[in-house]
Design a protein that fits this description.
Elements lengths: L20 E11 L2 E7 L7 H12 L19 E7 L7 E7 L14 H4 L2 H7 L9 E8 L5 E7 L2 E2 L2 E2 L19 E6 L17 E5 L3 E9 L3 E6 L11 H5 L2 H17 L12 E6 L7 E6 L10 H12 L16 E8 L2 E9 L7 E8 L1 E12 H4 L12
Parallel strand pairs: 2-3, 4-5, 12-13, 14-15
Antiparallel strand pairs: 1-2, 1-18, 3-4, 5-6, 6-9, 7-8, 9-17, 10-11, 11-12, 13-14, 15-16, 16-17
């Protein structure tokens, strides 16, 4: 049983500041293939400006190494979660995901993160925001970033001191060593999470001009994550290159960024130069017995695996006849199907329910993740930062 000791209030009233710093209760969690600090919403400053300054201080941004904070010098380990109880009918918890960057002072709360979402319910139990219900605990979570809702189930068996979050188990997800207890995520109404609809351009297939390449066919789609899906062969690549090879391919990255900017406008997102979406996904035929091979850019760095909601969105495109993904995918069945999305670290299985009356609509999507509490204690924030009134860099869809 994990018992947290991070119980002091965020204003420092429960204990004196350490060296002029404010102790903030913090639970450091792995969610899927991401990790970062989680906070109770009530423990952070209520004003966005001060909250963002505190998060930047905790992570050690901006600095490429994030040497003065908890960040891991990579976008996948420069994330934070903020969770609170909900007063909305039918919702148990509200989750705000914050994407930070090692070398930037921007705190972006516009995108979703399905990996960090996997840690929300374990965190809520650990931090006493949520009481365990039985051998399993299910909570409905609203992601404040985009309005995405999911039912999340975790294991909470009985122990000598009561029910606790079980992290040990037999579930393996590629990109994470070993096995752990499953976290089941059932997404509700993910279509058009940021964009206006599942297919924000109104088409299964669009065409865009890319300098040095010519006309490129793409599928612009949003089933939890705005994605631009393009065949790797359109750029003269196999789609089986390693992330290191792709990250070193400056010519490719420049062309992908040109395409991303053009598709951002097509998707009704305007100028996406400073945004973390749409993400870019190169696809190719499967090679390991799965449904499709992917290389995902987030959006300027190639992912070592693939994000949860990116995998859901790619899988959705695989079952929609006429998309770039569908013509490359190996898909069997036309109702409830499991799509195996291959990525650099292995594969990611997504269960989709296709509406038999309308094969162009996905009725449900579900998947398994794992999570683990790594550390519980206090994150120390300089008192001068805690009271900052610098202008906010955040964007937020409620």
């Amino acid at each position: 049983m994990t018992q947290s000791t991070a119980l002091r209030p965020a204003d420092g009233s429960g204990s004196p500041p350490t060296g002029g710093q404010v102790p903030v209760p913090c639970w450091f969690m792995r969610g899927g293939t991401s990790r970062g600090p989680f906070f109770r919403a009530a423990d952070l400053p209520s004003q966005t400006v001060a909250r963002d300054a505190a998060l930047l201080a905790v992570m050690g941004s901006p600095d490429p190494r994030q040497i003065d904070g908890l960040g891991g010098a990579h976008p996948l380990t420069s994330k934070a979660g903020i969770v609170g109880r909900s007063e909305r009918e039918g919702i148990d918890l509200e989750f705000l995901f914050a994407q930070l960057q090692p070398d930037s002072n921007v705190v972006d709360t516009t995108p979703n993160c399905g990996n960090m979402l996997a840690a929300v319910v374990p965190f809520a139990v650990e931090s006493s925001l949520l009481a365990p219900q039985g051998d399993t605990t299910t909570a409905r979570v609203l992601t404040l970033n985009t309005g995405l809702t999911a039912d999340i189930t975790i294991s909470t068996p009985e122990g000598p001191s009561g029910r606790y979050v079980e992290y040990a188990g037999d579930t393996h997800i590629d990109g994470v060593p070993g096995t752990a207890a499953p976290v089941t995520i059932n997404f509700l109404g993910t279509a058009g999470s940021v964009c206006s609809s599942l297919l924000p351009t109104g088409h299964l297939l669009d065409r865009a001009e890319v300098a040095g390449v010519g006309t490129v066919e793409v599928t612009c789609i949003d089933n939890g994550q705005p994605l631009v899906i393009v065949e790797a062969a359109a750029f003269g690549r196999t789609g089986r290159e390693s992330p290191a090879e792709l990250n070193a391919d400056e010519e490719l990255k420049a062309r992908i960024e040109d395409l991303r900017l053009a598709c951002g406008r097509l998707m009704g997102l305007g100028d996406v130069t400073a945004r973390n979406y749409p993400k870019m996904t190169l696809v190719s035929p499967p090679t390991g017995g799965g449904s499709i091979t992917t290389r995902s850019f987030i959006p300027h760095v190639c992912h070592e695996s693939i994000g949860v909601l990116a995998a859901v969105t790619v899988a959705t495109a695989c079952v929609l006849r006429g998309t770039v993904a569908h013509r490359l995918a190996a898909v069997e069945g036309n109702a409830d199907v499991t799509i195996s999305v291959e990525h650099p670290a292995g594969e990611f299985s997504v269960q989709l329910g296709v509406d038999p009356a309308d094969p162009g609509q996905v009725a449900k999507s579900a998947l398994l993740r794992t999570a683990r509490l790594i550390m519980a204690g206090d994150a120390l924030v300089p008192r001068s930062v805690w009271h900052t009134d610098a202008p906010s860099t955040e964007e937020h869809h409620s």
